[in-house]
Amino acid sequence: MMNKSSIILGTLVLLVSLVTLAESTHNYKVYVDVNSNCITSKYNKCGRHPWSAFRNLKEALSYVSTYFPGQDSDSDSDSDGWDDNWLDIFGFKKNNGGGKDSHDCFPTIYVSRGVYSGNLNKELNISTPVEIKSKDGPSSTFIDCMGSGNGMRINNNPNFILEGFTIQKCSSNFGGGLFINASHVTMSNMVFRDNFASQGGALAIQSSSVIVSQSTFINNAGIEVANGVLVNDSTVNFINSNLQCANDLYCNSGAVTFDGNTLYSNSSITCASTKECLVTNGDISDSTADDDNYISLCGKVRPVCQINSNQSNNGDSSSCNNDGVCDPLTENCLTCSDCTQCKLTGWKLVSIAGCIPPINNQTGCSNSTTKIQTPEIINFMPSAPCPVAGILSSYVRVKDDGPISIRLQAKNMGVRLYVNNRIQIDAYLSNLTEVDTVREISFVKAHPHTIRLEFFSLFSETRNISLSWRTSNNDPYLPIDGFISQNVCNDQILDEEEKNETSPFYCLSDLQSLNPNNITFTCGDGLCTEVPEECVFDCYSILSPKCPAQAPPAPSLLDPVDTTGMLLNNQYLFSLPGLSNLAHGVDILTGLSRVVPIFAFDYCDNSTFTLLQNSYRYQVYTIPKGVYATLTPSCNYNAETTTYSSSTSMAREKATSTMSSLEANAGGGNSFIKASANVAFTKENSVTKASEIENKISGSLHSTEVKCIISKVHLVDQKLHPIFVRDISHAIDKPQMIQVVKKYGNLYYKSASLGGRLVQSTIVSEDYSSKTDSSEVSNSIDQSYGASINSPVLNVQVQTTKSTSSQVSSEQMKSFEENSLRTTISSFGGPAGIFSPDQDNSFARFSDWANQVDLIPVPIDFKLDYIAELIPSHWKVKNSSQSIRELWMDAEIEWFGQVYPDKIFISRNMTLLQFNFNAAPTDIPNALSLTTIAYNETTDVYEPLLTSNNHTIHNTTTASVEAVFPSIIEIKSLVGLNIPSACFPLTIIDSAMSRSYRFNSIADTPTYVPHQVVVEYTVECADCTDNTYLMALVKGSKDTVKKIFQWKSFKNQKSFTVNESTYIGTILSLNLRIVMTLEEGEVAESKISLQVKSLLISQTCGAPNSDGVDQSGCTPASVPFTTYGYTHVYQPIDAKKVYTVKTIKSYSTIPVIYYSF
After folding, report:
1. CB neighbours of residue 42 within 10 Å
2. Which of 201, 762, 798, 970 could make a disulfide contact with 222, Cβ separation 3.0–4.6 Å?
């Protein structure tokens, strides 16, 4: 039985089918695209949609003729060439006159831009009523016969329409471009160029009715008669067209009419007989040869072409009667002073005879000015004596920001091309026989650009020149569309009259626009006329051009006539889930992505992206250029718990895992890496939650999490987002750049695992931990976590919950919960709010979350780098010698200081060193020098400089002094004179690197004992006696060491040393207990309190091998080598705080902060 949903689905499908059928019966459309990949087969039919277009015209016409064969196949009595059965199927009805209601009732072939050549695009026999229309016009769509064969033969066709093509280089006995016989033809917006035939170089029209509108004839040739158009027993009407010099018309019989907008003044019109052929410049529908309502043009002889009317030029001629009134039909601003304002399409051509500008003075030279439609000249000034020269100039606009390939071709010419008054191609003095060169030039769409082409020739041979462009390697080179504008307000062009406040053409809105007479290349004027890399402020849009953010639909795979196939073929592909997160910068404090992106994951063409198939979800994902990705679905069903000394150390550990790939070449050296890591992730969600509960209980912090990884992504070629480029280029000082840093963050993802993780932090009291077996504590944490991720509420019944590793009794869990605190679940990725504590009665399970996390994944394991490294070092701040990268770095340092004013010294390429002498020197008259290993910046790369660098401190009389040095990797030795031995030992602390060096004497190398821990302190205890003892526990991540001291010796020695044979791990904490006897476990009641006023812990790593590498894992991964070994420095979280240890049958913990990465 059919259910309700099936009925609804069926109804929707029926509605879609009816809508589709209605659309298909309105107009029958066929598509052709020279770049199409569609191949017609049994299962795949091309042509019905733009994305499944035919690749050539012949296939499209053959397809159309199947439905409209051009002859009756039905049984009616008419003979109009229409198959009425097919007409009825497609809903086309004929009128009583035997024709169609309109041309919408027969098929239209839409042709995309490109050059259509070869046997499948010429000698096309067309007898079927059809309209062939280009999408982008004759400047972009060409039918090129390449010198052999004619373009089309229109024979016995009742209705043929052709619009928007350039037909070129075609040949035949009759009608090189088109041969029309016994047909009704309408042509509009056509260009016939370089075609030839025995008769009718462009068109041969016989026994037909033809309308030619908005069309141009250029350089066509008829060997016998009619370079342009041959008319035999036909009616031809020219509307707003252009038949100029060397485009002859020959009328054998019939009637030809030119409307008032058709240019024919320089044409040669020949009639075989004035009685049989009527050629007029008016409407002849109601006229005869004996009427006075027309002027016969038969016998008009073409005058000799003037110098500026090149034989093959596509220009026009205009007159000037100097009456002070501009006649737009015959006069223009290029050639007539009557016209002071105009806007024209095309190019200004100045033709010069007898001199070569700018080498010779043009005084006395013959020159003339005209307008041509496109920058193409064949046989320039053939009758003029050498030398000849010319200047082509125009304004151009582009549709999109970015690079465009400009092609300059010349024969027997010296040429020089200027774009925005900057030379781009210079072969002016070469005067080569052949020039064919391509230059990629970037344009912005925000304002017009000037193009000026200067050329000359000393050769008497044929002189040709052309200028074309294309935006993509898949497109053909097309003539550049230019325009001429003079004294037109708001055209973004500043003419001289528009600057004059007393002029009628004064234009306030154009005062900051492009001035073609004075292009100054001033960065910051809003005009991108400079080299883009030298003025990012003006040219940011072409340094990172915009592209669509979604990949195009896949090529058609199903029959588009079928409704389901049509819907499926129109599907757009999805991007990889979670990938958009990697387009954003990362806030170093929170670890979260910022709102605005720094990268543009877009699709500039149809070929540079890759696909990734998800079989589980039945989806195919797109991966943009520069991104590598793979699906690696996996979930870790065993909770992982990590122990930290505090929430601060938890943040440091996150910085360890995410920033460990950073090397010293990343934005200012190791010092900056270490220092900036001190503030990293301190406000991350799970860290913030942990910080809130650690204020309520003193103990160890445990972070437990479960991960699900869906995919892994690696960025290899990042494209900066145009808005990011705009923002960094428009920040011209430090305060402005600080706002940009806040907006975009400090870091970016280099690679990431996308998925989800569930995190919970637990603090267990130190007293409970010391009395309870560590495995029981661990199992209790796991069981507590398991309860949390199976329910949104935390008071779950313990009896029903088991640990992932072993079961814990109810009594044990009760004791654990009384001595611990835990946070709510922090959920990263997956459905939002599934573990929300507000949902008191709903039971959310881990499986529910895991089953959906692949739909909304986020970066969970990732490597980061500094955004500063993305900014090219040669990009400059507006009108400044400082680079944008340097300004970003300076702003970032100042921002760090604003966020954490009490943190350690943070600076790029500089290190703060603290010198702690054993006793204050009375005087150091000479400099104390350090021999160091540093990083030396060469261009954009930091390379180890193994030679010595000497840095100094001068006269000091204090026991502790700080000094700023260039960023260093390692201090090798100490050099100085007249320093008393009492000043030693000397400890030097690199604050940013959390590294220390100990020197026992002058001219010494650092003292180094592998795996040694030294605890230095200042303590006070007013009530302590000789019977007071101290127990110290040094806790490492791998082991714990215990030491017991008598108070008297402990106070005086000010430090103690722990020597171990192996690495005890990262120091987590120093625990102190006051005891009254030496018997272990005995603690007396006492009110004695111990105050720890200062604390410094140093830990040496394992001895480096011959390659300077420590095998123990103690030395930070970012330190590439060490000569004498690495010594970590640990200090309390708050170095200024006085810690008080009281004895109330317990011991207290002094937490420490560590900077080891």
Report:
1. 6
2. 201
Task: Kindly state whether residues 832 and 762 are assigned to the same domain.
Answer: yes
CB distance 687 to 646 below 8 Å: no
Which of 221, 254, 280 finishes a domain?
A: 280
* Number of domains the chain contains: 5
* Distance separating alpha carbons of residues 166 and 154, to the nearest angstrom: 17
Give the count of beta carbons closer than 10 Å to the beta carbon of residue 9: 11
183 within 8 A of 158, measured Cβ to Cβ: yes
**Which of 937, 968, 999 is where one domain is finished?**
999
CB 973 within 8 A of CB 1124: no
Token pair belonging to 369: 């000015």
The CATH number that applies at residue 457 is 2.60.120.1560
What DSSP element (H or E) covers 936?
A: strand 928-938
Rounded to 5°, angle at Cα 735 from 729 and 740: 50
Strand duo 160-163 + 184-188: pairing: parallel
Q: Name 1132's Cβ contacts closer than 8 Å, sequence gap at least 6.
A: 1095, 1139, 1150, 1151, 1152, 1153
Rounded to whole angstroms, the Cα distance separating 124 from 126 reads 6
CA torsion, ordered 714, 717, 723, 729, to nearest 10 deg: 130
Residue pair 346/371 in contact (Cβ under 8 Å)? The answer is yes
Q: Would you give the distance in Å from CA 999 to the centre of its chain?
A: 53
Nearest residue to 784 (alpha-carbon basis) of 737, 735, 837, 825: 825
In the predicted model, what is the mean pLDDT of residues 602-616?
Answer: 76
When mean pLDDT is compared across 173-187, 294-308, 462-476, 1066-1080, the lowest value belongs to 294-308
Residue 960: give the domain boundaries.
Answer: 909-999
Q: Do 169 and 225 reside in the same domain of the chain?
A: yes
Q: Are 541 and 401 in contact (CB under 8 A)?
A: yes
**CA 96 to mean position of chain CA atoms:** 60
Angstrom distance (rounded) from CA 95 to CA 1035: 99
β pairing state of 584-586 and 366-372: unpaired
How many helices (H) and strands (E) are present in the chain, helices listed first? 17, 65
Of 629, 643, 654, which Cα lies nearest the Cα of 757? 654
CA 753/CA 658 separation, integer angstroms = 12
Give the integer Cα–Cα distance in Å for 483 and 373: 9
- Tens of pLDDT, residue by residue over 1051-1073, are 888 889 988 888 988 887 787 77
Q: Is 646 exposed, middle or buried (0-12, 13-18, 19+ CB in 10 A)?
A: buried
Query: 3-state class of 465 per DSSP?
Result: strand
Mark whether 959 and 1045 lie in a shared domain.
Answer: no
* Residue 1003 C-alpha from the chain's centroid: 55
1079 versus 590: the higher-pLDDT residue is 590
Give the tens place of pLDDT for each residue, 913-969: 888 888 776 655 445 667 666 544 333 333 333 333 455 565 566 777 777 777 677
Amino acid at site 1078: L
pLDDT score, position 1073: 73
Amino acid at 1144: I
- Say if residues 175 and 150 touch (Cβ distance below 8 Å): yes
pLDDT per residue over 672-717, tens digit each?
A: 555 565 566 666 666 776 666 666 676 777 888 888 888 999 888 8
- Look at residue 731 in the predicted model and tell me its pLDDT: 93
Structural domain includes residue 821: yes
- Rg (alpha carbons) of the chain, rounded to whole number: 42
Q: How far apart are CA 412 and CA 436, in angstroms?
A: 12
* E strand spans, 11-96: 29-32
Q: How far apart are CA 371 and CA 517, in angstroms?
A: 20
**Quick one: which of 592, 544, 579 has its CA closest to 751?**
579
